[in-house]
């Protein structure tokens, strides 16, 4: 961990560089055993709840192809965008008709197919034909020609990374519950996400006014509280796998990562009782713990409280990322021991009170993040937990319904 400035931040941000492991470590059984303790320290109750994986073969090209499509899709003519999304079997889980939106998201359900052999390698195998796919991408100049293909290829790669981390955790915790739960689900949700720059928002407002020929309805003017792209929250699945973000300039649409000193992903580290900006190597992947893993492991894994900050003075910089959410199947039933229920009731799964500092008092995180104990009960299915969590965050009377 180190101090450092960050792309227009008013307050100097303290930087967290998460534990890094190499893709090759996950392919070698002996090396995988050697790193398992470090993995648990990063993801366990005394760690930050996330780590990063570097050196994933073939992923850099997929990332460079996919992430710029997020901005292009977000700013595209709505009719053309709908046609492209339909062609590639993508949808959206945000109101794209809202010109004041801070985020555009394009989603697809990814269905995992286990390899025919239990000792198969991870996603990339020189004999699997993936190399041919990557070669064809090098020569492709059409903006959206391979949108669906690249989305799925990168998504499956990230699913495999999550499964490999699940195996490491299972060996340390015992029981094999994480990998088994993920394989039982056999599905994940991929989201290609564009975080709008102020310049993007101005463009969308102008386009909306031009199309409607009258001012935008006041119901869409929700602004940006606390200068965040995404408000404080916990993910509620098992793992969230994220690409290292890409920053683009609306002036040139070129990669602007060099002008940012971190990812603008901000986390709260309960053991240190401090906030950090996360900094990761280029082309790496972040593995982040969700509340379902927290519950299933009886607190041996610790979910990550996080938000995405928006640069104050970089008016033309947008943020692009791709996330894959690994979760139990919808019908999975949570069954708690009395020990786990006591942890949930006491709130100890989400640790001690946050220090009231000048930096965070405005956000008043405890008032916008509903406690886990209010959203989960013994015998609840994952689908019910998902609905209750979404309701308490974003429903009509939810803590973030107007944010």
Automatic annotation (TrEMBL):
It comes from the Eukaryota. InterPro entries: IPNS-like_FE2OG_OXY, IPNS-like_sf. It holds the Pfam family 2OG-FeII_Oxy. This is Isopenicillin N synthase-like Fe(2+) 2OG dioxygenase domain-containing protein. Residues 265-328 form the Isopenicillin N synthase-like Fe(2+) 2OG dioxygenase domain.
């Amino acid at each position: 961990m180190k101090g450092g400035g960050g792309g227009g931040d008013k307050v100097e941000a303290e930087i967290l560089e998460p534990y890094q492991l190499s893709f090759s470590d996950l392919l070698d059984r002996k090396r995988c055993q050697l790193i398992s303790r470090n993995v648990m320290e990063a993801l366990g109750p005394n760690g930050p709840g996330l780590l990063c994986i570097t050196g994933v073969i073939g992923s850099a090209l997929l990332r460079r192809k996919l992430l710029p499509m997020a901005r292009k899709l977000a700013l595209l003519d709505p009719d053309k965008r709908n046609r492209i999304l339909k062609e590639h079997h993508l949808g959206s889980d945000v109101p794209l008709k809202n010109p004041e939106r801070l985020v555009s998201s394009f989603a697809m359900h990814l269905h995992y197919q286990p390899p025919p052999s239990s000792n198969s390698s991870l996603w990339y195998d020189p004999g699997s034909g993936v190399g041919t796919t990557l070669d064809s991408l090098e020569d492709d100049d059409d903006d959206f020609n391979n949108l669906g293909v690249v989305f799925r290829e990168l998504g499956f790669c990230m699913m495999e990374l999550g499964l490999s981390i699940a195996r490491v955790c299972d060996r340390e915790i015992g029981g094999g519950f994480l990998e088994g739960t993920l394989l039982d689900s056999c599905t994940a949700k991929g989201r290609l996400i564009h975080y709008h720059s102020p310049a993007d928002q101005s463009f969308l407002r102008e386009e909306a006014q031009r199309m409607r020929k009258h001012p935008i309805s006041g119901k869409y003017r929700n602004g940006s509280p606390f200068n965040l792209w995404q408000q404080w929250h916990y993910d509620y699945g098992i793992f969230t796998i994220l690409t290292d973000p890409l920053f683009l300039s609306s002036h040139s649409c070129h990669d602007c990562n060099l002008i940012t000193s971190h990812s603008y992903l901000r986390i709260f580290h309960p053991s240190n009782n401090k906030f950090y900006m996360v900094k990761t190597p280029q082309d790496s992947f972040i593995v982040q713990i969700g509340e379902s893993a927290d519950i299933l492991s009886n607190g041996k894994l610790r979910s990550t409280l996080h938000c995405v900050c928006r640069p104050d003075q970089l008016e033309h910089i947008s943020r692009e990322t791709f996330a894959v959410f690994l979760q139990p199947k919808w019908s999975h039933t949570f069954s708690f021991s009395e020990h786990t229920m006591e942890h949930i009731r006491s709130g100890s799964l989400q640790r001690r009170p946050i220090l009231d500092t000048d930096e965070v008092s405005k956000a008043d995180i405890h008032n916008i993040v509903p406690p886990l104990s209010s959203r989960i009960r013994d015998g609840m299915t994952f689908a019910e937990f998902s609905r209750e969590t979404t309701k308490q965050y974003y429903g009509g009377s939810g803590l973030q319904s107007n944010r």
